[in-house]
Amino acid sequence: MCSNAKTIYTDGSQTPEGLGIGLGFAIFDNTDFYIPTIPTFSYKENIGSSVIVYNSELEAITKALEVISSIVEKSIRYIVYLDN
Length: 84
Known about the structure:
Strand content: 35-45%
Number of strands: 4
Largest sheet: 4 strands, mixed
Number of helices: 1
Shape: elongated
C-alpha cells in the first residue's frame, strides 16, 4: 500500500432488520505502514425498501465518487474497492 493513496470501500445490502436497503462507504488514509482500521470519513444511508440491492451498490459507488471529487488532492491516488 502506498502512502500517497486513500482507499475507499463501498457496499450495499439489505438491513439486518429487513427494513430497507442500505448503502455505505468508508475512506481510509494510508499514512503509515499498518492497514488502517479507523476511517477518516464514512457515510451510510437507508434508501428504502422499494429498490434492489444492486441499486444500492451503484448508489454507494456514486456517493463515494461525489465525496472524492469534492476532496481530491492532486498528489493523492484514490483506490475504490467494491464487491459487485
